[in-house]
Design goal:
By secondary structure, the chain is mainly β. Among the domains are: about 20-35 and about 335-420, Immunoglobulin-like, CATH 2.60.40; about 160-240, Macroglobulin (MG2) domain (Immunoglobulin-like, Sandwich); about 245-330, Immunoglobulin-like, CATH 2.60.40.10; about 585-690, Ferric Hydroxamate Uptake Protein, Chain A, domain 1 (Beta Complex). About 15% of the residues lie in helices and about 40% in strands. The strands form 13 sheets. A five-stranded mixed β-sheet has the order 2-8-7-4-5, covered by helices on one side. It has a five-stranded mixed β-sheet with strand order 31-46-45-34-43. Helix 1 (about 20-35) packs across helix 5 and helix 8 packs antiparallel against helix 9.
Length: about 775
């Protein structure tokens, strides 16, 4: 039996015969061509926060890792960053210059942007596939002091068709006082109403909904919407037992072999692609008795040991909760084939085995590759089962593919593994004062350390923001760039493990069974040998065409990611951040529909305004009821067009085509009128055209600057700290600051108080990455 167990280091030198070296040379050449034709990059974008209001600046830093590099670096020299709404429409888009795999940037949110969810999208000139595009949710809120805070009092339950579901919520005013009143609710199946009703809170602000779910086979989650009058105060999907699921089974390292002791992984998603937790039993097809009980370890993923019998068919029956009663077939049991299993990774070795079923002794190749580079390889002859102990020397940290090939380089089995860092990078981050008064300066010091407390140099990204503006569901810097950003199926829980500095080999490798690096299977390597590299313009045009659909899919996939929620404590100490927004009454909704139909039919604006609010004409002035009896009356209603005051002459309205009008707002409240004039006008008519904007752009609004087609980013300190904004939420933001050997900054005083998070993202000169978060209290 031949077992060379030779090791290939950076120069890919193998011990063995000349024929051996030719085999491995060929493998390396195939990997080289695959990397050239199908460059793979992993992009991560960090924003200063996750929750914004209209008119805010979004500050961001972008990191790009090429699969062929252990450190940051990119094939392309530019990065496109866009913001999409839920309809797949682009709100903002710019191109930024990449240098060494990094860039920073910023963009303004429109002042009149609607509250809701948006997706930030980033891709480079080397991005060829939609699933390589980076996406993350951005939330916009109106910071309404009159809003209600609604929180579920218990874990979200699964709704059961034909049964009553009891849901509990705590509803408070922004200051924490229990809300006393009625809320209406709607349970929606897409755009179709399932059931609606009203419910009243008790004295403690507890809202109990008793919802009778119709006995229908709902295939997707149902959306629960709570309203206070017209205003939506809560919206979230709820899983339903009848949801149609998709279950995929994967035998570790290859085929589902008869008689082999294998680990079988399974992934579970609904039709929106959302990972789902399930319980059930494994049964033989046609039999009712249970072989074993199965359940997911994390939402959407499970694994179990099993030895299948030849000639039998197996099924998974979901017995509880989502998907109850649905049956799923396991793969057909193969009588012949190979499987590669990883039994254990310790500090020095990768312990694995190759199992054969129904095959004679076979000569084969076992190889390991990562980032387009052959790391290790050996030729061996296997009969039955061959156990191997592979030294980790020469293996880079991160994801690595183990593959078993026959003599024609056809894949027999494969297994993705994760190699942890032997030399961990650590961040020491400290503020001079951990608790300070608002508007009081502070200081921050950061050091990077490696083995034996050795001080290292590198770069860091620093943000200091209130924790209520940060989403728990946001992707993780370390989790994305080291693991999830590469995978065909992202691993639930990896981001939290990474943020807690517990991204270890044992936890990750167990979840990698059945997973692969995107576009990096051995079959992908073989297929790319016949392909030519596409021009950057061709791939970008393709991406721009499919991105709206991909964005909508992303919204569906992340429907359960809730918006960061304000706390009553944060509201009470920062009242200046919020403003009272009057919700439209239901009667006004009907008027909206009526007047917009009148506009669409080409009716005069004078007639349309009268539909909204009756008036009389005093010469050329519009007088709303009560105005001409006022002792202080001096003028008619003020007309404002796209934010510009146009006077009080009603004849001006005849110059505006009703087909050009987007909306009309009428008010006689002094607080609304005084936004535009201190005179005693008796009303305000605000008209927004389809090409107009509500906000007036002044000469002080900075124009975007570009160099060679790339956006030139602004400086945070210069832009924000000199603005005098007393509602500035971000205390500090700095991208790609040098740490050599220490980073020290004087932090400006924050006008906003609360519990803050100091987030530090770091990478050293060797490409290792780590993040650190510390707390800061500003009173």
């Amino acid at each position: 039996m031949k077992n060379l167990l030779t090791f290939l280091f950076c120069l890919c030198l193998f011990a063995g015969s000349a024929q051996d070296n030719k085999v491995f040379d060929k493998i390396q050449k195939m990997l080289d061509k695959h990397s050239a034709n199908q460059p793979s990059e992993n992009i991560f974008v960090q924003t200063d926060r996750d929750l914004y209001k209209g008119g805010d600046i979004v500050w961001f830093s972008a990191f790009v890792r090429n699969l062929g590099l252990s450190a940051l670096g990119s094939v392309s020299d530019n990065l496109v960053v866009s913001l999409f709404d839920e309809d797949g429409e682009v709100i903002n888009e710019d191109k930024y210059k990449l240098v060494g795999g990094i860039c920073r940037g910023d963009f303004d949110l429109p002042a009149d942007i609607a509250p809701g969810r948006y997706v930030l999208v980033a891709y480079s000139g080397a991005t060829t596939q939609p699933d390589d595009v980076f996406m993350k949710l951005i939330f916009v809120d109106d910071f309404n002091s009159g809003a209600l805070l609604v929180n579920a009092e218990e874990e979200p339950q699964t709704l059961a068709p034909g049964k009553q579901s009891s849901l509990l919520f705590r509803v408070t005013e922004m200051d924490g006082k229990p809300f006393g009143g009625k809320l209406s609710y709607e349970l929606m199946d897409g755009d179709n109403l399932v059931v609606d009703g009203k419910a009243k809170t008790n004295d403690n602000g507890i809202l109990k909904l008793e919802i009778d779910v119709p006995d229908k086979p709902f295939e997707l989650p149902l959306d629960l919407i709570l309203r206070d009058g017209r205003t939506v105060v809560y919206s979230s999907p709820f899983h339903v037992e009848s949801e149609k699921l998709s279950v995929r089974f994967s035998a570790e390292g290859g085929k589902f072999l008869a008689g082999a002791n294998q680990k079988i992984a399974f992934t579970v998603t609904n039709r929106l692609g959302q990972p789902v937790a399930v319980k059930g039993v494994l049964v033989e097809k046609g039999e009712s008795s249970s072989i074993m009980q199965l359940k997911t370890l994390t939402p959407g993923y499970g694994v179990f040991p099993f030895s299948a019998e030849q000639g039998k068919l197996y099924q998974f029956l979901v017995t509880d909760g989502i998907g109850q009663g649905q049956l799923f077939d396991l793969p057909k049991v193969e009588s012949t084939g190979a499987a590669l299993a990883v039994t254990r990774l310790d500090e020095e070795f990768i312990n694995c085995s190759v199992q054969l079923a129904g095959m004679p002794a076979t000569d084969m190749i076992l190889a390991a590759y990562a980032g387009g580079r052959l790391i290790w390889g050996t030729e061996l002859s296997v009969e039955g089962e061959q156990k191997l102990k592979i030294s980790k020397e020469g293996f880079p940290s991160g994801l690595c593919e183990l593959v078993v090939l026959d003599q024609s380089l056809v894949e027999l089995g494969s297994r993705l593994i994760f190699i942890g860092n032997d030399s961990e990078l650590q961040v020491e981050a400290d503020v001079a004062l951990s608790s300070i008064e608002r508007n009081t300066p502070n200081s921050l010091k950061v050091k990077l350390k490696g083995e034996a407390e050795k001080v290292l140099s590198g770069i860091i990204n620093v943000s200091v923001v209130p924790e209520v503006l940060i989403s728990d569901a946001a992707p993780s810097f370390v989790g994305c760039l080291n693991v999830n950003g590469w995978l065909e199926t992202t691993l639930a829980g990896v981001d939290k493990l990474a943020d807690a500095d517990r991204l270890n080999e044992m936890s990750v490798n167990y979840m990698l069974i059945g997973n692969e690096i995107k576009h990096n299977r051995w079959s992908d390597v073989q297929a790319s040998q016949k392909l030519a590299k596409q021009a950057e313009g061709v791939t970008r045009a393709h991406l721009e065409k499919v991105l709206p659909v991909e964005v909508k899919n992303y919204f569906s996939l992340h429907a359960l990611d809730l918006k960061p929620s304000f706390s009553p404590e944060f509201y009470k100490i920062n009242p200046g951040l919020f403003q009272k927004i009057r919700p439209q009454r239901t009667a006004e909704m009907a008027k909206d529909d009526a007047y917009k139909k009148q506009l669409a039919s080409g009716g005069s604006l004078l007639d349309v305004i009268k539909m909204i609010k009756p008036y009389t004409l005093d010469g050329d002035k519009i007088i709303f009821p009560g105005g001409n009896n006022s002792l202080m009356f001096q003028d008619g209603a003020l007309i404002v067009l796209d934010g510009q005051k146009m006077g009080t002459s009603a004849s001006f309205l005849s110059s505006i085509s009703p087909y050009d009008v987007e909306s009309i707002s009428v008010s006689t409240k002094p607080i609304d009128i005084q936004q535009y004039t201190g005179l005693n006008s008796v009303g305000l008519i605000e008209i927004t055209t389809k090409k107009g904007e509500r906000v007036v752009v002044t000469d002080d609004t900075p124009a975007k600057q570009y160099e060679n087609g790339n956006r030139i980013p602004r400086e945070f300190a210069e832009t924000m700290l000199n603005s005098g904004d007393q509602n500035r939420c971000v205390q500090w933001w700095e991208a790609f600051a040098a740490v050599d050997p220490v980073y020290e900054r004087e932090l400006p005083g924050s006008p906003v108080a609360g519990q803050f998070k100091v987030q530090v993202l770091a990478t050293d000169d060797a490409g290792k990455m780590v993040s650190k978060t510390i707390s800061l209290i500003i009173k």
